[in-house]
Structures are given as C-alpha cells and as structure tokens.
C-alpha cells in the first residue's frame, strides 16, 4: 500500500514564494510539540526558491508507479527538512531522480501539478493540512496553521480526533 501525495504548491496558493524564516518557525513548532527528531536540518540559507519542479518530479514518479511516487515524495521531504538541501536546485533534483530511478519531469508533469492545485481548490482544500480522502475532505487533526501576531502552528493533542482521522483514512 502506498499514498499518492497530490501537489499543493504553496507558492501558487499564497501567490508568493515560501518564506524560509516562517517555514523554519513552523518546523520548530512541529519539533517542539509533535516530532522532536524531525525537521532538524531545514537550512534557511539553502531554502528552495520554488517547489514546482520538485512537485513535477514527484508527479513523474507517480506516473511511473504508485510506490515509486511515494518514495520520491518522501525523498524530497527528507532532502529539504532532514538534509538541508535546496530541492529547487536542478542539480539536486537530477541527483535525486538518478538515485531513485526516475526520469526528469516533462510538460505533462508540470501541467499535472497545476491541475492538482486547481482540483484541490475545487474540492475545498483550505491549506496544506487538509487531505482529500476519496470524496471526503479531512483536516489533519494534529496541527493547525494560523496567522496573527505570532504566525505558526497550533498543536492539538486530542487522541479521539486522531483515531477518527486514521479510521477515515483506512476505510
């Protein structure tokens, strides 16, 4: 079993490139409240200028095979958050593609990334914490991003919500 992680290009959602400092604050919040061993090496000096090419690479991998797509999606996450690599750098993406046995994306993959974004909007996805589970829209019950005086992540520790969420995923 594998998960197809659909593209949700935040630079298109927000109409601006991701802010490295804000992303680092979110990573700090997640490490403090949820996963102390993760997000450890996010490098604001080597932060990607865009995620579009990386998302297209993941799409190309999913077009090859569901498990390959999942593996590439997780490898991109690992490269960015755990290895501090710039996943917008063409050399980095070519290395990852070669290591994972995937060809570089083409125009179809780029179009699919934009199509995923439009489909998410059509289905009512409000943020990157929202997941589409077949015909259901579920909000990940562990974290909520918020704007305000202190931008960041609110961690919700509610085992019953998490259990319900996982149950809906596995139906």
Care to describe what's here?
Mean pLDDT is 83; it is low at 131-139 and 145-149. Helices cover 51% and strands 9% of the residues. It has a domain at 10-125: Cyclin A, domain 1, CATH 1.10.472. Helix 3 (52-64) runs antiparallel to helix 4 and helix 3 crosses helix 6 (107-122). The protein has a two-stranded antiparallel sheet. The protein is globular and about 40 Å long. With 171 residues, the chain is mainly alpha-helical. It has helices at residues 10-13, 20-33, 52-64, 66-82, 90-100, 107-122, 159-170, and strands at residues 130-133, 136-139, 143-146, 152-155. 25% of the residues are buried. It has seven helices and four strands, in the order H-H-H-H-H-H-E-E-E-E-H.
Briefly characterize the structure.
The chain is mainly alpha-helical and about 170 residues long. About 50% of the residues lie in helices and about 10% in strands.
Secondary structure elements and their pairing?
Blueprint: H1 10-13, H2 20-33, H3 52-64, H4 66-82, H5 90-100, H6 107-122, E1 130-133, E2 136-139, E3 143-146, E4 152-155, H7 159-170
Antiparallel strand pairs: 1-2, 3-4
Helix pairs in contact: 3-4, 3-6
Record field, number of beta strands: 4
Cross-sheet strand order for the largest sheet: 1-2
Largest sheet: 2 strands, antiparallel
Strand content: 5-15%
Classify the helix fraction into a percent range: 40-55%
Distance between the termini: 13 Å
Order of SSEs: HHHHHHEEEEH
List the total number of helices.
7
Low-confidence spans: 131-139, 145-149
Q: Report the CATH architecture of the domain at 10-125.
A: Orthogonal Bundle
Mean pLDDT: 83
Q: Which class do the helix and strand fractions yield? A: mainly alpha
